[in-house]
Amino acid sequence: MKNYLIAPSILSADFARLGEDTAKAIAAGGDVVHFDVMDNHYVPNLTMGPMVLKALRDYGITAPIDVHLMVKPVDALIPEFAKAGASFITFHPEASEHVDRTVQLIKEHGCKAGLVFNPATPLTYLDYMLDKVDIVLLMSVNPGFGGQSFIPSTLNKLREVRKRIDQSGYDVRLEVDGGVKVDNIAEIAAAGADMFVAGSAIFNQPDYRTVIAEMRREVEKAHGSFH
Ligand SMILES: O=C(CO)[C@H](O)[C@H](O)COP(=O)(O)O
Ligand SMILES: [Fe+2]
Fold first, then answer.
1. Residue 31 belongs to what domain range?
2. Could you give the ipTM of this predicted complex?
3. Residues in the active site (predicted)?
């Protein structure tokens, strides 16, 4: 695995040409497809389900697909997304009655598992789970919509989680999602993130390749400060 990953969020892609636009973001240098699932219950928006993910696989998308579940309840959708071709599945622990069981379910279905923390969610869910997850995802906006501004207090939270991961010695990715742009990705990387979701910053520009290359240049500048 690369030492950091850029994950274009297709929430901001052209839904009428989703296969083509997703392929374009990967061809432009994206590592992972970030796939936002919203249920109009856990979050106030409604997006895509397993059928859409399967359609992307059938279209020929072979890059890892990072399913960010913003749904409640969580468990019933996990086998469906795994069957459809998900690679990573992350969920919000407060949306699951049994967090450990949900992580086990994701792994039993052959996917990597992660916990997602909203800006105001404390990190206590990590106390007994850091050895069981592959990804910790910190939301840097309140979940539900693309195009919001990065919440600066996420930087301290990233530093805290980076410290916990490094002290533990476990192989865990630290993902960040919301308001990530070329002009703030360096400080986000320096705070410890190694997986960067970016939706509007990539898809709202005509040339995805240039944005992703600029993001990489910024991350690589910052990486010396923690790797
Ligand atoms: O999970 C999400 C929102 O709930 C999206 O992944 C996120 O907002 C990406 O969009 P942007 O980069 O435009 O902020
Ligand atoms: Fe997301």
1. 5-223
2. 0.98
3. 36 (proton acceptor), 177 (proton donor)
